[in-house]
Amino acid sequence: MKYSQQLFAVTLLLFLAIVPCRGSAGIIRTDILVVGGGTAGVPAAVQAARLGCDVTLVEAGGQLGGTMTTGGVSFPGLFYAHGSQIIAGIGWDLVCETLSMDGGTLPDFNKPYGKAHSRHQIRINAPLYAALAEDKCLQAGVHLRYYEFLSRIVKRASGWKVTLIGKGTEVTVLCKQIIDATGNASAVALAGYERVRGEDTQPGSLIFQLEGYDADQLDMPLLDSLFRKARADSLISVDNCYLSLRSLLNIGEGLSVSHVRGADSSTSETHTEANIAGRQGLLRLLKVLKTFPGLENITIKTAQSEVAVRESWRIVGEETVNYDDYISGRKFSDAVCYSFYPIDLHTESGVKPRQLEKGVVPTVPLRALIPKGSRNIIAAGRCISSDRLANSALRVQASSMAMGQAAGAAAALAVSNNCSPGQVSYDQLCSVLRANGAIVPE
Questions:
Q1: Could you tell me what percentage of the chain is helix, strand and coil, using 3-state DSSP and rounding each to the nearest 5?
Q2: Per-residue pLDDT tens digits for 143-202
Q3: What is the pLDDT at residue 258?
Q4: How far apart are CA 390 and CA 328, in angstroms?
Q5: Which ranges of 290-322 would DSSP assign to H, the alpha helix?
Q6: Cα(403)–Cα(158) distance, rounded to whole angstroms?
Q7: pLDDT tens across 405-418, in order?
């Protein structure tokens, strides 16, 4: 072979070796595709990978954690009920490691707070959590793909053919199982299974912090009066701050948080509308506050890049958790985890939680994670099969973490047993979850 031919051959081999690494196109073969890297998706991916599966996690954003990190709701709860821990496992371990590295402390879970359930929330460093969640995925061998979206899902005899589109990428994923952790049941819908939503949905929230004032020097009675008048004159709406001005200014333990009506993250168009509405509302609020005495120099310290969404689409599952199931603490025969949070339906006027009675701890059945009539797909997190009131409590982060770990274990067992997640042995599933630190209802 002449030198020029040798050079061409070497160059061609190098080119063929490099092109797949660019990820511009190609085929990925994986056991399990996890769609969504939020509070449910991370435990699902880590659990499945720890059980020996090849796992690929695709996330539309640029970091893991979802509502807890990008959305700014950095207080995952609730892990304890009536003084006893009811949710543990991968999500709990991540929260504790984040708190430990940040020098924080856990609340006193044995101290009853009555209706003030927020005092059992764990405040965490969101960027640190995102980094640790990523580290846990990498350690477990999960393949991470950021900035990619589902485009198409086609059934195959041995699973699914999924098309992903991203920044300069279009790849085909051939997988045996799908875990839908999108929060919107997006994968379930593309796979051809039913999902539902009500005509009305809970508002989302834009979380932010303000600075540029001395709280100790403020004339709060005067400011409260001016704030009420600004609302009455429609200069600002109740959505811009549905709580008090003190909460808005972060005086005491308040949160700077707005409501964004109809916030929906299920499509790029609706998510764009929600984010624009949240930021424009914050801008209007800031302009009004700057006219108040003592707040002339008020400005934005931080603001989340996305509105945190509470409610959108839910799957139609083999079982549906309803309000009565939840408030009675029904023990489902195939319960895979607990959930504990008040009924927490946000409306245009705010939220009035309904607390659970003492001793009541609701459970989540495996069948509520399985889309009705489906094969080789399971959902976890906010899009669980449930009615609206039950979902207002089930959607929270600790519960989503527990559901995610259960979904990851079920999908992994389905891979090893060549079946669907809803067909795995319940006893085997519970045994695997307990062996991996989760708490399963007895």
A1: 40, 20, 40
A2: 999 999 999 999 999 999 999 999 999 999 999 999 999 999 999 999 999 999 988 888
A3: 85
A4: 11
A5: none
A6: 25
A7: 999 999 999 999 99
Residue 394's H or E segment, with its range, is: helix 388-394
Q: Are residues 33 and 93 in the same domain?
A: yes
User: Which residues is 148 bridged to in the sheet?
Assistant: 166
Give yes or no: residues 353 and 374 share one domain: yes
Asked if 82 and 361 count as a contact pair (C-beta separation under 8 A), the reply is yes
Amino acid at 379: A
Reading the block at residue 247, the tokens are 């909460």
Q: Based on the domain organization, do 237 and 257 belong to the same domain?
A: yes
Q: Give 236-263 pLDDT, tens digit per residue.
A: 888 877 778 888 887 655 568 888 888 9
Give the angle subtended at the CA of 387 by the CAs of 370 and 195, to the nearest 5°. Answer: 50
Cα 401 to Cα 37: distance, rounded to the nearest angstrom: 11
Asked if pLDDT for residue 14 goes beyond 70, the answer is no
Structure tokens at 125: 């460093």
* Alpha carbon distance 352, 405 (integer Å): 30
For residues 413 and 308, the answer to whether their CB atoms sit within 8 Å is no
Q: Among candidates 125, 42, 32, 117, which has minimal Cα distance to 81?
A: 117
Q: Are residues 182 and 219 in the same domain?
A: no
Query: Facing residues of 58 across strands?
Result: 35, 145
Cα(381)–Cα(41) distance, rounded to whole angstroms?
A: 8
355 within 8 A of 342, measured Cβ to Cβ:
yes
What residue has token string 């499509």?
A: 267
* Residue 353 · residue 117 · CB < 8 Å: yes
Question: What pTM was estimated for this model as a whole?
Answer: 0.91
Q: Residue 421, CB half-sphere, CA atoms under 13 Å: how many?
A: 37
Same domain for 182 and 119: yes
Count CB-CB contacts under 10 A for residue 414. Answer: 27
Buried b (16+ CB within 10 A) or exposed e, 4-27: eeeeeeeeeeeeeeeeeeebeeee
Find the domain containing 165 and state its range.
25-199+311-435
Query: How many beta carbons lie within 10 A of that of residue 237, not counting itself?
Result: 17
